[in-house]
Amino acid sequence: MADSSHGAPGSSVTVATPGRTPEQFENPGLPPHRPRLADRDPRAEKRAERQVALLFFISILGTLLFFAGYFFVELDQTIARLRLQNLLLGLGTAFAMLGIGVGIVHWAKTLMPDHEVTESRHEIRPEQDRRDAEKIVNDILDESGIKRRPLIRNTLLGAALLAPLPAIAIFRDLGPLPGDVLRQTMWDTGVRLTRDPSGTPIRASDVTIGSAFHVIPEGLNEAEHKLEEKAKAVVLLMRLDPEELNPSPGREDWAYDGIVAYSKICTHVGCPVALYEQQTHHLLCPCHQSTFDLEQECKVIFGPAARPLPQLPIEVDSEGYLVASSDFQEPVGPSFWERG
Amino acid sequence: MSSTTAAKPYVPKTRVGKVTDYVDSRVGGSGIVKEFGRKIFPDHWTFMFGEVALYTFVILLISGTFLTFFYDPSMAETNYDGSYLPLRGVEMSVAYASSLDISFDIRGGLFMRQIHHWAALLFVASVAVHMLRVFFTGAFRRPREFNWVVGCVLLILSLAAGFTGYSLPDDLLSGNGLRIIDGVMKAIPVVGTYLSFFLFGGEFPGTMIIGRLYVLHILLIPAVILLLIGIHLFMVVLHKHSQFPGPGRTNTNVVGYPVGPVYAAKAGGFFFIVFGVLAAIAAAFTINPIWNYGPYDPSPVSAGTQPDWYIGWVDGALRLMPGTLGDNFTFEFLLPFPWGVNTLSLNVLIPALVPAMIVFTAMFAWPWIEAWVTKDKREHHLLNRPRNAPTRTAIGVAGVTFYCVMWAAASSDLIATHFMVSLNDVTYWLRFLVIFGPIAAFMVSRRISLALQRKDREIALHGRETGRIVRLPHGEFIEVHEQVDDYSRYKLVAFESPEVMVPKPDADGKVSRLDKVHGRVSRFFFEDRVAPVTPREIEASHGDHHEEVAGAKDREAITSR
Amino acid sequence: MKALSQRRRHPLAALALLLMALLFTGSLYAAASSANQAQAQTTTASEDEVEEGNKLFVANCASCHGIGATGSDAAPSLVGVGAASVDFQVGTGRMPMQMDGPQAQAKPVQFTDEQVGQLAAYVASLGAGPAIPSEEITDASQGDPAHGGELFRVNCAMCHNAAAAGGALTRGKYAPGLADVSEKHIYEAMVTGPQNMPVFNDANVTPEDKQDIIAFLKTIEEQGSPGGADLGSLGPVSEGLFIWVAGLGVIIAFTVWLTSRSS
């Protein structure tokens, strides 16, 4: 409460009080007004007037330019024509607006009075107002009787706390619970690896050393939730010299003759890791630059990802087409709390 | 209500007068005109950024309304059959197809899309610059703390508005942006997976997200922004605008131009100028070429996938965080619980949340942090020149540097290709800079502020260097200094320079722990200071000056003879 | 037999023997390598061409790739890479390499078209590999740009950018922008997989698909951006820089003018 007097703007120390030996410089007051060219010279004034009018006239021309672009440039499916129309509409609007804006400001700067005016500030909360308000609030509280009737107050508080809960609960059906869907993909024993986006199956002999295939599971294009399934199931298929693969125990038969399939969904935040460097055997995510090394079972060698890309075990079916031996052995894509 | 008390009711003479009177007597317009017609607003170019933000918002509302008439936020599959040949027959969502139709088949649609997106970029940029102006000039101090907080909320809302709008075309670029949001969300402990499923209406990408973002983008967020702009402007009127110190300007007055006619003309004209500049940009420069990116599909991705600039810093932080250290340590932890093992992805959580938390917490709390340090409870209507608050300025510059390094990190791949350096090296350098850059920026900018203050002091004491060298009779060369006039000098000396507050022992002779901390922080803030020149110092310094100048005059007299 | 024994002392005999040996190993390699390249191996090069190519190779390439192009520590073997590979690497100026670096860069071409053809013929003679594509199959006007766009986004955009503006790879390598690259070279890059680019053989992306991709690239290159200058097609980064530098710069200039006193 004692601070309130400090809050008054009058207590500022930047202005020295006259009469005392000045510790600080006294405010010299507003500098004298310097007349502008247009104030002194009637010809300059007339010139400024013409300039403002000219700017408004440019604005009119700008609007006409817009109409010219809108009605007289017919779109014919060529990009050049569309570009021309966009340019005319834009420049027309730009001239129309800038003409008005620059004109008005020029008018204000050259022809309207430019004497600086001083206005005094008022206290934001005069003490008298505070007292009056305090009395009013007390009267309101007294008349409502909320202080004298704690039973009413407490039950109201309880009701007011509970009442918004339905408003939160009603949003429950925004989406289903995750369940197990993040752990399963369309891959399964015998599901053929097919090209993205055509969905044609791939023979092992098609995959030459150095090549990379973007792969979706067979039947994905006809799946009911196509994009959701695709967001989990996309795979990158590459062939290396079998010597260069170093499978860990238990994963020796996940590759077929140097052909390996890895999930394309980054274990960081889910961008497609699709950049394959065929000489270094590195996979790079273009979103956050996580780098995975194919020779070390897609171990993270750079960047923000913390887990290797999951590998899809593959084999060849009786017709020579590449098929999955099973689903992924772990959930694909970014980590989530329940992943474990 | 009736005019029975008035002896003679006012009778307007002209037709315009009659109409005005008819309205005025029903809505009380006279009072409004009396209050605002001649209200004074100070004039300074840095005070215009809030207006830029307001005007770009109006332009966003106008162009956005046009776009809603043609845009369809449906994620149903369709085959494109519009005018853009390289996408003919491609399967895509209705949302993306309607965005293409706006661009290629509706006259002026492309222009509206471009001006809307450019205005959005300028909107957030002007909000940011406006906040920096308020910060560096100390305009957040009492009584304007709450308006600063309202401004901070507006900044966050403008980011939200931008992000929800960025996603609407449902193109490949924005779809991968949503995918990243989904990935970050899933990393949140305990509730992450649920949040993601609730937001997307099931598994990513689902069929709900675009419609939901659309409602947020065109209804909820703009409505809240409008409400807060109302509160923001109401408080500006209530407090009256702050002003820079200078001759005639005090803490108890406002010096400037009246609303009518000068300020209204300038501010009104400025709306048209901002509109015109944006229209010119939209006429000649492509923004967000959604036709290049193609429809969203979880399999493809484009090199150089980045969010718009205002979200870029979070993306940059995601890029800078290493996921693993050495061969065996990863930032993803498996936490064994009685019910099973849970995953904690600190490699995602730290960059996604920590920098944003640091920046926003510091931003919201700053007025109170500074008030605690200075123990200054007075009202401030006079602004600081940034150099006259060296530590605050340095902290602000450090914050900007922190932000900019992360922003640069979001374009690390483009830096690599354009400057022909290794992507990995860029990342290593930026990791170093994100920690040490702000520290270096703090030290350098504080030194620069102090140096500028000393320069001001020199000029106030000795005047400006004229570049005229004269030789005195005894052979010494001096440069003639020209004293500045009272008005210019007042601008150089009208500031306060707080001193270090030493903690005082209480009645028992003890210093509380908090006071000790305060003493240290106060020392950190105000140990290095340059005091404003006092009249006494000028008097003291004038002695030698008179000699110098007199000597110079002698010399001139000699040479001219 | 006598004539042959006389010619054994001919200066070119060693070379001829070497050539024959190489041809032999090359054809063995070709037979061993996968079937899908078989269709590309027919060469119509004349012996003279091969001969001239050999001379050029010895003078310009052999210091790294070795005599007979069998490779060395500094450079890979070229046996079996095919004429397409030579035509791409030499025809875009990437070879001969100027200096060691993360990858060979395109630069002014060092040889005439005729010489490039001779080199290609020579390397093709060492072992079967992808041939230089016919003008028919690289004719952009015959392709379907919409289908090509789909394939481009799935197979190419992650490295080369959706608007073919290029992008970064690891440790200083990069995928170049594709504007101004000839149809033939785009095709050859896909079949041969130069440097770190994966190979897109005809079993993966059929010749017609490749033609569609070329059609897409040439379409977007020729039409330009409908919205005006494309700011390098670099996406939100260049847009953000533009609004901060140019947009805000112009606005600030206006604010300074607006608040300054008129003279």
From TrEMBL, chain A:
GO terms for cellular component: plasma membrane. Residues 257-323 form the Rieske domain. Keywords: 2Fe-2S, Cell membrane, Disulfide bond, Electron transport, Iron, Iron-sulfur, Membrane, Metal-binding, Oxidoreductase, Respiratory chain, Transmembrane, Transmembrane helix, Transport. One of its GO terms (molecular function) is metal ion binding. Residues 1-43 are annotated as: Disordered. Belongs to the Rieske iron-sulfur protein family. This is Cytochrome bc1 complex Rieske iron-sulfur subunit. The lineage of its organism: Bacteria, Bacillati, Actinomycetota, Actinomycetes, Micrococcales.
Automatic annotation (TrEMBL), chain B:
GO terms for cellular component: plasma membrane. GO terms for molecular function: metal ion binding; oxidoreductase activity; quinol-cytochrome-c reductase activity. Its cofactor is heme. Its EC number is 7.1.1.8. It catalyses: a quinol + 2 Fe(III)-[cytochrome c](out) = a quinone + 2 Fe(II)-[cytochrome c](out) + 2 H(+)(out). Its main location: membrane. It is a multi-pass membrane protein. This is Cytochrome bc1 complex cytochrome b subunit. It comes from Arthrobacter pityocampae. GO terms for biological process: respiratory electron transport chain. The keyword NADP does not apply. Keywords: Cell membrane, Electron transport, Heme, Iron, Membrane, Metal-binding, Respiratory chain, Translocase, Transmembrane, Transmembrane helix, Transport. It is found in: Cell membrane. Residues 536-561 are annotated as: Disordered. InterPro entries: Cyt_b/b6_N, Cytb/b6-like_sf, Di-haem_cyt_TM. The lineage of its organism: Bacteria, Bacillati, Actinomycetota, Actinomycetes, Micrococcales. The chain crosses the membrane at residues 52-71, 117-136, 148-168, 180-202, 214-238, 270-291, 348-369, 389-408, 428-445. Residues 19-245 form the Cytochrome b/b6 N-terminal region profile domain. Gene3D superfamilies: Cytochrome Bc1 Complex, Chain C (1.20.810.10). PROSITE patterns: CYTB_NTER (PS51002).
From TrEMBL, chain C:
Keywords: Cell membrane, Electron transport, Heme, Iron, Lyase, Membrane, Metal-binding, Repeat, Respiratory chain, Signal, Translocase, Transmembrane, Transmembrane helix, Transport. Heme c 1 binds at C61, C64, H65. Binds 2 heme c groups covalently per subunit. Pfam families: Cytochrom_C, Cytochrome_CBB3. It is found in: Cell membrane. The keyword Cell membrane applies. It comes from the Bacteria. GO terms for cellular component: plasma membrane. Its main location: membrane. It is a multi-pass membrane protein. Its EC number is 7.1.1.8. Residues 48-127, 143-221 form the Cytochrome c domain. Heme c 2 binds at C156, C159, H160. The chain crosses the membrane at residues 241-259. One of its GO terms (molecular function) is heme binding. It catalyses: a quinol + 2 Fe(III)-[cytochrome c](out) = a quinone + 2 Fe(II)-[cytochrome c](out) + 2 H(+)(out). Residues 1-30 form the signal peptide. The cytochrome bc1 complex is composed of a cytochrome b (QcrB), the Rieske iron-sulfur protein (QcrA) and a diheme cytochrome c (QcrC) subunit. This is Cytochrome bc1 complex cytochrome c subunit. It comes from Arthrobacter pityocampae. The lineage of its organism: Bacteria, Bacillati, Actinomycetota, Actinomycetes, Micrococcales.
